[in-house]
Design goal:
Length: about 160
């Protein structure tokens, strides 16, 4: 299976807390960081490396989303609290979870940069349907889309 990556720029502009400052704050104040540093990161790195080698999208997707959710939890428990996600970020998370539940397995996975922008992972075979669903829920003028595959818009319309 060939994995594709989409980027949904949900909010441009400068963040209130830089990534570097946010990481330092989190390391010093979030009660979730000690366990994460001690065990979670190394376990997930090992598991995701194995998933990538085995081309196991389901495991990869679950770890990516768990990591993203953990980042949100760390930000929420940092003092003072860090808020990178926006309402659109949370709407994207809900949409992906609902879509995957309807599919019965992870078909689309999300992760976020240290900001509101969402990166989505999907297998090439599922790309047209996933993009069509995203366009339906996050209407955007077509001139603001960029696809490396010029035929993708046609495939989306057929999905």
């Amino acid at each position: 299976p060939e994995m594709q990556v989409l980027c949904a720029v949900l909010q441009g502009g400068k963040k209130n807390t830089s990534s570097t400052a946010g990481m330092q704050q989190s390391l010093q104040t979030s009660p979730l960081m000690p366990k994460r540093i001690a065990t979670t990161v190394s376990e997930r790195m090992r598991t995701v490396s194995e998933a990538i080698k085995a081309r196991d999208f389901y495991t990869f997707a679950q770890i990516a989303m768990n990591e993203s959710d953990d980042l949100q939890a760390i930000c929420a428990t940092t003092q003072p609290q860090i808020q990178y996600a926006t309402e659109d970020s949370y709407a994207m998370i809900r949409l992906v979870k609902t879509y995957n539940a309807k599919k019965g397995h992870p078909t689309l996975a999300y992760t976020f940069d240290a900001g509101a922008n969402c990166f989505l992972f999907v297998l090439e075979k599922d790309l047209p349907e996933a993009v069509a669903m995203l366009m339906q829920h996050f209407p955007t003028p077509s001139e603001r889309f960029y696809f490396h595959d010029a035929m993708l818009l046609q495939k989306i319309q057929e999905a």
